[in-house]
Write a structure and sequence with these properties.
By secondary structure, the chain is an alpha/beta fold. Strand 1 and strand 2 form a beta hairpin. The strands form 2 sheets. Strands 3-2-1-4-5 form a 5-stranded mixed β-sheet. The protein starts with 6 loop residues before the first strand and ends with a helix. It contains 12 helices and 10 strands. It has 2 domains: 133 residues, Nucleotidyltransferase, domain 5, CATH 3.30.420; 186 residues, ATPase, nucleotide binding domain (Nucleotidyltransferase, domain 5, 2-Layer Sandwich). The longest helix is centred in the last third of the chain and has 25 residues.
Length: 328
């Protein structure tokens, strides 16, 4: 890196991890830092600042630059669902010493920036939780769901899938519903002796089945268990419903556009993506369903470049994407 080159910071603040990526104007990655969760809804704004400090310090150490050297920054932030949350979020970011021009967006938007050449369309994120946002072509209109999870009827992340699986196991054991191989699978996963011990232990907080159980549910579905298959189908349809809500808000029904899928849930089972595709294409037949193939933090770097009036070429975008993938 020469001293005349600009330095851009992209940050993806999620419910599980926080990633910071530094790049120059040619797309060369200068540094990368990773920390734990940064969602203020679960760890507060002080926790957001702490996670950001850790990720930035690691990225600065690799790159040899500091906060004062950053020309512009882009942030994708899990939990930034309403305009009223931005002042407190900016204050938390300011505690790190960053004083450069910056743009803050919900982390779902990073999928559009990283996964589409023009940076518009609809993005669906499903990992620990889920969300859906969209931009129109000239970014004059934005659409989104509430981000409120099951309280707002928007639950199809790994957490909600695991919760539904537990209910299905309970219904199978009480004979309220069909029996399912999920019972034995989840009991073994939790370290329980059997299904009754699992259910009793969950009620007494001796066992816990959280989002980490989602891959096992998908595996059980792939093995042919009807109940597990139904849960996976539900997740895909629910995520498709969320996408359709944003499609209606932005009046995309008759357009050709991309629906970018990001998050670990889409790695669990192809049936989730298939169900989502059916639901979305029933409303918007020309929508293209695309799995995000690069880390979302790439979108944050591109957002930072935009703040400096730079519109990266395809070559620069490709370089950032390839080097970011290599960093993990």
């Amino acid at each position: 890196m020469t001293s005349s080159r600009k330095v851009f910071l992209g940050v993806d603040i999620g419910a599980t991890n926080t990633r910071a990526l530094l790049a120059d104007e040619e797309g060369a990655i200068l540094g990368f830092g990773k920390a734990g969760p940064g969602n203020h809804e679960s760890i507060g704004y002080e926790g957001l600042t702490a996670a950001l400090h850790t990720a930035l310090d690691r990225g600065f150490a690799q790159s040899g630059v500091g906060a004062a050297n950053i020309d512009a920054a882009g942030f994708g932030i899990c939990g930034l669902d309403w305009d009223s949350q931005e002042p407190a979020t900016r204050k938390a970011i300011g505690e790190t010493g960053l004083r450069c021009p910056m743009r803050l967006v919900n982390d779902a938007i990073l999928g559009l920036l990283a996964g589409t050449a023009e940076g518009w369309g609809v993005a669906v994120v499903s990992g620990t939780g889920c969300n859906c946002w969209g931009w129109n072509r000239d970014r004059t209109r934005i659409g989104h769901v509430t981000g409120g999870g099951t309280r707002m009827g928007e639950g199809a992340g790994a957490t909600e899938l695991a919760d539904r699986a537990v209910r299905a196991v309970a219904h199978g054991w009480t004979q309220r519903g069909p029996s399912t191989a999920l019972g034995a699978a989840l009991a073994a996963f939790a370290g329980a002796r059997d299904v009754p011990d699992l259910l009793e232990g969950l009620m007494e907080d001796r066992y816990e089945l959280g989002p980490s159980a989602a891959p096992l549910i998908c595996q059980t579905a792939a093995g042919g268990d009807p109940v597990a298959k139904g849960l996976v189908e539900w997740a895909g349809m629910e995520l498709g419903e969320m996408a359709n809500a944003v499609i209606r808000q932005l009046e995309f029904q008759d357009l050709t556009f991309d629906v970018i899928l990001g998050g670990s849930m889409f790695d669990g089972s192809p049936a989730i993506q298939d169900a989502l595709r059916r639901k979305v294409n029933a409303l918007a037949p020309r929508a293209r369903i695309i799995r995000l193939a690069v880390p979302p933090v790439v979108g944050a770097v591109l957002l930072a470049m935009e703040q400096a009036g730079i519109h990266p070429s395809d070559r620069i975008r490709e370089r950032i994407s390839q080097e970011a993938c290599a960093r993990g």
